[in-house]
Amino acid sequence: MTIIKKIILNFILPLGILFAFQFLGNMLNKYFITFMPGPVIGMLLLLLALSFNIIPFRIIEKFSLFLVKHISFFLIPTSVSLIIILPQIENYFIRIMVMLILSLTSVLIISGSFASWYSRKTIKGDPDE
Amino acid sequence: MNNLYVVLSIFITIAIYFIFLKIYNIKKNILLHPNIATTIILIILLYITKIPYESYNIGGKYITSFLGLCIVVLAIPMYQTLQLLKENFKLIVLTSLVSIYTSFFSMIIFAKILSVPKFLVYSLIPKSITSAMAIEASRFTNGNESIAILGVMVSGILGAIIGRFILDLIRIRNPIARGCAFGMSAHVLGTTQALEEGAITGSFSAISIPVTGVLTIINLPLFTKLIGYILK
Q1: A24 vs A32: CA distance, rounded Å
Q2: Per-position b or e across A69-108, b if 16+ CB within 10 A of its CB
């Protein structure tokens, strides 16, 4: 009996809650918020539910943290599909790489500089406010 | 026969993943990251054994079906760092917006110069966000999921390798700014590097991931329209 209870509390209940939010997100995406993917809506709703304590964090804590730790596992089959796509984009491969490196460098420099400038500005600005 | 493929491909994926999880715990090299290493090993295995990807994916698609759940569960790390986000809301959101517009427009400019066709750019827009969200984003822009993953992986690996070097080069020492730059350019893989630099850098990098993901997705309709106008 206790083992069944444990399985339900640690596994089925949190999984059910997560699926419910995914379902809710997908429904909202279908009928109302079409500009956002369903699971992302589900994520934001779950965040709201957790912050307003509608769903107590401790109920889903253990299971969710386990899942978060292993998210990358669920992406492996999609990543392996590179074996099909790489030969198809062979001609563009080097250009894509150059584009990605240049874009990444731009993002690093500009967002780093902006955040550094902004936090300096707000610290200096504080006494005046 | 199909059932055998299902069990076999799921089992092999789990086995290789756990081997690299153990190895990565000992040696934190970015190329040994379980996701990247397992992908590379599986691709090599499929290539050598000449097993078509479709056969592997008979089982693989069961693993992929949890992807939506993986996005929903991202609410948890966001909830845990909510205090940090609240305290630095303006800084994080503004920097994130700057970073996604920089990411987008730099891609457009370089794609134009290098004449990269737009069907590739559609899939590469979400390159700086976490893979689960990037796949969802590429479905949204009618892009290709595999190319989206390619963009995400390359950005993540490069960001983790050259990120520190570039930030040192332009003399950014503020740990908050470094954290934002890591998380917003190279998502989870950048965060592994940020965590090595310290707790502040690490947590700012971690909080940047979902924020950048959500803001990128909100901007997708605008981005896809712009690509349609600008690129061929």
Answers
A1: 11
A2: eebbbbbbbbbbbbbebeeebeebeebbeebbebbbbbbb
Q: Which of B31, B65, B99 is the C-terminal boundary of a domain?
A: B65
CA separation for the pair B75, A51 (Å, rounded): 10
Joined together, the tokens standing for residue B112 give 């134009």
Instruction: Give the pair of three-digit tokens for residue B67.
Output: 């992807």
In this prediction, residue A115 has a pLDDT band, given cuts at 50, 70 and 90, of very high
Q: Which domain holds residue B100?
A: 75-230
| Interface with chain B: mutation pick from A61, A69, A75, highest number of B CBs within 10 Å | A75
Is the pLDDT at B2 greater than 70? The verdict is yes
Q: Which of B65, B93, B116 is the last residue of a domain?
A: B65
To the nearest whole angstrom, how far is the Cα of A3 from the nearest Cα of chain B? Answer: 25
| Closest chain B residue to the Cα of A60, Cα to Cα | B76
On whether both B123 and B161 belong to a single domain, the answer is yes
Do B22 and B123 fall into the same domain?
no
Nearest to B43 among A43, A82, A101 (CB): A82
- Mean pLDDT value across residues B74-85: 91
- In chain B, the number of structural domains is 2
Judge if B80 and B157 occupy the same domain: yes
Structural contact between residues B161 and B152, judged by C-beta atoms closer than 8 angstroms: no
Same-domain pairing of B118 and B40: no
AA letter at B197:
E
- The amino acid at A80: V
Is 0.95 exceeded by the ipTM? no
Contact B53 A81 (CB under 8 A): yes
pTM for this structure?
A: 0.89
Same-domain pairing of B106 and B212: yes
Has residue A128 got a pLDDT over 50? no
